[in-house]
Amino acid sequence: MPSRARAPGRRVRRLALALVALVLATAAALGGLWLATPDPGPLARENPRTTALIAQRQAEAKARRRAFRPRQAWVGLDRVSPRLVEAVLASEDANFFGHEGLDWEAIRLAAEHDLKEHRFARGASTLTQQLAKNLWLGTEKSLLRKAKEAVLAAKLERALSKRRILALYLNVAEWDDGVFGVEAGARARFGVSAASLSTAQAVVMASILPAPRKVDLANPSSWLKHRARRLLDRMRAAGRVTAEEHLRASSELERILAGPTPADDLEEPPEDDAPLAPAPVAASAG
Q1: Distance CA 216, CA 224 (A)
Q2: CB neighbours of 203 closer than 8 A, spacing ≥ 6?
Q3: Alpha-carbon distance 88 to 166, whole Å?
Q4: Distance from C-alpha of 29 to C-alpha of 220, rounded to nearest angstrom
Q5: CA 157/CA 210 separation, integer angstroms
Q6: DSSP H or E segment with residue 180
Q7: How far apart are CA 151 and CA 145, in angstroms?
Q8: What is the mean pLDDT of each run of 10 residues along the chain (286 residues)?
Q9: 106-158 pLDDT tens trace
Q10: Coil, strand or helix: which one is 64?
Q11: How many CA atoms, within 13 angstroms, populate the side-chain half-sphere of residue 208?
């Protein structure tokens, strides 16, 4: 009888030891990642010369024999339309100024949504995580990459101010094939500077971020139209634009998105990391 009474106690102790071992192993792994990942400190004063995403796009283009000449022009936040900043935050990370790199509420909601859909349908990456991915990791999909991304996001938040993180993100984000940064993106998409973007143009710029290389404004897809209209309505509901500005921007938005839908129209953003078509090979003369 005493041995039977002691059995549950032994199981509890074993379970407790296993949990402690798991916690220690996790802490050790995170500590190793912290030491192994780059130090963001210099970015407080310096702009990066290039990024992992640009290097990845260069390698992809070379492998497919496509020409690749990245366009990028750095600008400060004071030279970016405030409406674009508001649109990007509303679209990508509404709690940007309230989290420290990871948005646990967004992660919880995304997990609940994915369980309901039985697939990975919704992301929960903050702007800080997206910046870490663009700067150092590229678009590889793996649990290790996500772990590095989380650690780097925490390091960015410790080393840099929120405004600096936001400025870096806007200047390294991909806005079209070979186009990086909001200044080059605004000029490529609308022929104006980032500071001169209208409210409707800013909404479109923010709306294309999930799949910028797959957006053709001459043939806007259903997902882009839906996303842009919903984003503008969200900005109105949040008080970011007045009723009058919303009305004007809605009219301009419909003009921007007036083109015919593409033949391969989609209701949801496509996987932007799918390879682009190779450049056509010129026929030899004669």
Answers
A1: 10
A2: 83, 87, 228, 231, 232, 235, 249, 253
A3: 10
A4: 45
A5: 23
A6: strand 179-180
A7: 10
A8: 60 61 49 77 96 97 95 97 98 94 74 57 79 96 92 97 98 97 98 98 97 96 97 97 98 98 89 53 34
A9: 667 655 655 665 554 445 699 999 999 999 999 988 999 999 999 999 999 99
A10: coil
A11: 25
Q: Is 19 helix (H, G, I), strand (E, B) or coil?
A: helix
Alpha-carbon gap, residue 231 to 259, rounded angstroms: 19
Going by their DSSP bridges, the two strands 71-72 and 174-176 should be labelled as unpaired
- The pTM of this model reads 0.83
Token reading at 93? 């990370």
Total length of the chain: 286
Quick one: CA torsion of 103, 109, 112, 118, rounded to 10 degrees?
-90
Burial class (CB in 10 A: 0-12, 13-18, 19+), 131: buried
